[in-house]
Design goal:
By secondary structure, the chain is an alpha/beta fold. The protein contains 13 helices and eight strands.
């Protein structure tokens, strides 16, 4: 896996001429399911969009994605329609609240192995319509898998979502351990979800960082906590992101704080650009 990840990065290098180089590409992952990862992605993306940033969510949990449901959509098309059915990007990308965009990942995981070189190149040509993005969030599947680690290798930043529960922390640690073992990243950011109070979030992170520093060679940064809030569950049932349905509730305020920190951390990136990202993704799928 280590050799493959290195090869994939090398394959993409030198092929990014004439690409926008200020798009921040962020992979969001979690060691286990059920920690609220997709909800955080959707709400943070909308918070950034409300602040004037241009954001695209790529639902990278192919076959199991639910970002569209959280945003109140039932998409008719997905990324495979662009590749196999010659559809245009604009016909597949969904525009959500405040203009945030969503590229549904679809459900044909086995079809990635059917993609021809011509189809890959045609797809990349169509991606030029996704210019002028400030952020691309790749919402990966839960857990630790080869594909999740490959998504991490394609990004500028990694954000790991966990909760104060011991099992969630252990799985988040295992994810970071895999990232270190395969030499994919030497730093990551952490969000602690479902905290009873702000102090619980910081205390949980400090304990987690202590374990990471003792046993893993990776720097981690605290992006913040998100409070346990009934308003969030109500928003999910209404299929309306909480940052819109109840922007003054505790968890919405926490999400806004995290969005502000992300903007503050956006001064450096790896100059992938939109096409650079998808060149890597298509190499993964080839």
């Amino acid at each position: 896996m280590l050799d493959q990840a290195q090869i994939l990065r090398q394959m993409a290098n030198g092929k990014q001429e004439n690409l926008r180089q200020d798009t921040k590409i962020i992979t969001v992952a979690s060691g286990k399911g059920g920690v609220g990862k997709s909800n955080i992605v959707v709400n943070v993306a909308i918070a950034l969009q409300k602040m004037g940033k241009k954001v695209l969510i790529f639902d990278a949990d192919v076959g199991m994605g639910n970002d569209d449901v959280l945003m109140g959509f039932l998409p008719k098309y997905n990324v495979f329609d662009i590749i196999f059915n010659n559809m245009e990007i604009d016909d597949v990308v969904i525009t959500g609240p405040y203009g945030v965009k969503l590229l549904p990942g679809g459900s044909g995981i086995n079809r990635v192995y059917e993609i021809t070189e011509y189809q890959r190149n045609k797809f990349l040509e169509k991606l030029t319509s996704l210019k002028d993005l400030d952020y691309i969030f790749m919402d990966t599947g839960a857990g630790i898998s080869k594909r999740v680690l490959e998504y991490v290798s394609c990004s500028d930043d990694l954000i790991v979502i966990t909760t104060p529960e011991p099992t969630a922390l252990m799985d988040a640690y295992s994810l970071l351990k895999s990232v270190v073992n395969f030499k994919i990243k030497d730093n990551a950011k952490v969000i602690i979800n479902r905290t009873v109070e702000m102090k619980e979030g910081k205390d949980t992170f400090d304990k987690f960082r202590h374990a990471v520093q003792n046993f893993l060679k990776i720097d981690i940064e605290y992006l913040g906590n998100i409070s346990e809030d009934k308003k969030l569950m109500q928003a999910v049932r209404l299929q309306q992101p909480v940052i819109i349905s109840n922007p003054t509730c505790d968890c919405a305020k926490d999400i806004q704080v995290i969005a502000n920190k992300i903007i503050g951390n956006s001064t450096v990136n790896n100059n992938l650009g939109v096409q650079g990202l998808f060149k890597k993704l298509m190499n993964i799928f080839s």
